[in-house]
Amino acid sequence: MRHKRFVVAMTGASGAPYGLCLLDEVLRQGHEVHLLVTEAGWRVLKEEHGWEIQQRENIFYDRYKDMPGELIYHPIKDIGASIASGSFLCDAMVVIPCSMGTLGKIAHGLSTNLLERTADVMLKERRPLILVPRETPLSPIHLENMLKLSRCGVSIVPAMPAFYHQPKNIEELVRFVSGKVLDLLEVDHDLFQRWRGGR
Hints:
The protein is an alpha/beta fold and 199 residues long. The protein has one domain (5-185): Rossmann fold, CATH 3.40.50.1950. Helices cover 39% and strands 15% of the residues. A 6-stranded parallel sheet has the order 3-2-1-4-5-6, sandwiched between helices.
């Protein structure tokens, strides 16, 4: 199996478990991940996971220190990081969860931080970009921005878990959404039971 290189970003939308589940699986399989977390994303990690965020990147390094994959953390304001350049080669970028503010800035080519700049690079270089929005209800502005990005080749994967596999807990719902993203990344997994058709 060829080890791949991904950029994974987490924003201030509720749904940090989706991003952590994706990171768990990708790093467990030995892939390289360049990680970004917005300021609001750190707030969500504190609210949803109780993380004390003074140490920031050390939290992730401690969590994944025994994983075979390589984790590289980039501060969100480091606009000169390697991933900000079109010469940086990677297989795909995922924003999970993706706030509507971040989605809107990407849709309009605004690069006010490293996440938005990196997404802009993915678009201009015609590389796979996957956004996992987590918001409801959706306004016409949200829908228009998603349509605009979809027409540019971006994969929009709303955090909408299925129920055909009769999930028994929240973890199984999270695994379904993260698994759908892994499918787009062409990373094999067994995070959820696939539909096998009627009997």
